[in-house]
Amino acid sequence: MKNKTLKIMQHKRIIGILLTVVFLLCIPLVAMQFTDEVMWTFVDFVVMAVMLLGAGFIYEIVMRKVHKIQHWIILIVALLSVFLLTWAELAVGIFGTPLSGQ
Questions:
Q1: 98 pLDDT tier (thresholds 50, 70, 90)
Q2: Does the pLDDT of residue 35 top 90, yes or no?
Q3: What are the residue boundaries of the structural domains of the chain, listed by start?
Q4: Measured between alpha carbons, how far is residue 94 from residues 54, 87, 97, 100 in Å?
Q5: DSSP per-residue string spanning 3-26
Q6: Per-residue DSSP letters for 38-76?
Q7: In angstroms, rounded to a whole number, what is the distance separating the alpha carbons of residues 6 and 2?
Q8: Cα torsion at 89, 35, 19, 13 (round to 10°)?
């Protein structure tokens, strides 16, 4: 019974990740309808979807495999840091790589 409950919770988290990604991608899509300040292309949506899904699924793996709270916190902070730095680089080019958004 415990394994069945655990599996249901894991599936709910995956569905939650997918719905969160869809919701977050709808924000710039809707904003593009009302302002010229947001100008995303199809590639921008694909890249952000891959980044969000990747981060979400890595989070899910950490939740399933890591049992020590200290290790869990370190890994989630590292994941969040890498995600935010990559997003900032792609958006405004804080490091000046050829992938920057400038």
A1: confident
A2: yes
A3: 2-92
A4: 22, 10, 8, 8
A5: HHHHHHHHHHHHHHHHHHHHHHHH
A6: ----HHHHHHHHHHHHHHHHHHHHHHHH---HHHHHHHH
A7: 6
A8: 40
Per the CB < 8 A criterion, the answer to whether 55 and 18 are in contact is no
Residue type at position 60: E
Q: How far apart are CA 42 and CA 12, in angstroms?
A: 28
Q: Which residues contact 44 (CB under 8 A, 6 or more apart)?
A: 28
**pLDDT band for position 6 (cuts 50, 70, 90):** low
- Per the CB < 8 A criterion, the answer to whether 89 and 95 are in contact is yes
| Amino acid present at 98 | P
Average pLDDT of the chain to the nearest whole number = 90
One-letter amino acid identity for 13?
Answer: R
Amino acid at the residue 18: L
Residue 53 CA to residue 97 CA, distance in Å, equals: 23
